[in-house]
Amino acid sequence: GERKERVGILVDKDLCELVVEVRRVNGRLITIKVVVEGFTLNTINAYATEAGLDKEFKRRFKEDLDKMVHGIPHTEKIFIGGDFNGHIGVMSMGYDDVHGGFGFGDRNRGETSLLDFARAFDLVIANSSFPKKREYFVTFRSSVAKTQIDYLLCRKSDRGFCIQGHPE
């Protein structure tokens, strides 16, 4: 039969009462809004299209994600985590504003869609913003490859939340 992907977001039991909105766009995109300590946090879980799926499917995913992010006011925080099925590479190479210079492997040839998405929404790829041991970059392993395809994005102004757990 046909495989159905469904993303979700786990919420700590102490935070459940602070969730004010849950919105599932489709099986690959979901967002929750939590109001905690005066901050409105929007967490998006994204599972990008797999290699081999048609261009129309990939276009719809990108369009849905764009709409979701456009719908979040600039006064609210955004954290997007997910499998974007792409490689941003070790070097920022022209994307210093969104790529912190700490990546893994080689960028997909001609593939800058995640970097362009981050730039369009004034986001930063948080897990490229600080050094870590090589093995912590790898988010997918097989018998023939190790790669990083899972990323965390946030507004540039909120990068401190990802590094320290609180604003700078």
TrEMBL record:
PANTHER family: BUCENTAUR RELATED, CRANIOFACIAL DEVELOPMENT PROTEIN 2-LIKE. The gene is LOC104228661. It comes from Nicotiana sylvestris (Wood tobacco). SUPFAM superfamilies: DNase I-like. It comes from the Eukaryota. The lineage of its organism: Eukaryota, Viridiplantae, Streptophyta, Embryophyta, Tracheophyta. This is Craniofacial development protein 2-like.
